[in-house]
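Appendix B. One record, verbatim.
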Amino acid sequence: MSFVAELAVMQGDIRMDDILDKHKQDFNEIRRLCLYCHGLDLTTTRLFSGSSCAVPSSETKSTLHNMLSGSLLNLAVSIRINFYQDNFENTLIPLSSLAASILIDDDLRYKEVTIKDVCDKIIHADSVTKPITLDEYLDNDVHVSIQFKGRYKKQNWTMDICLDLFAEHVLSMLDKLELENITKEIE
């Protein structure tokens, strides 16, 4: 804004409306990111497990790495924004869902995590890996996990996420919340 425009605003000659209020990541944006991550996860497994006709180059691998990292970080931040704005509650992801679990090195057993835990670990991970096994060793219903590692309060942790299942879990949670909100509005 020019000095003349700033002066006019300060004198009240020009009225300015602020179009922003707070960060906004609505449920449809979270859905979009979930679907994108879901697709990237399945593509990664298929493309690099030997079940594809293509032989990915190092440039393709690097591009996919950038896309997956950026999408995961965007998804984690979008979900966290909604937690802090009280748009939904932090829910536990049961181990039986196979969507996500965490191992604290000192405890040596996998534990259930909340959706917020998953987001925090995605954001604060020191390393991210997705080991791919050749297709001949995988069953059709096997889901390959992405592994995040980091350190918190002098304890190493390892979190495994089956990204396609995690994305489906978040999508189901959003649908359930919207249905509950519609029901409350009708009552």
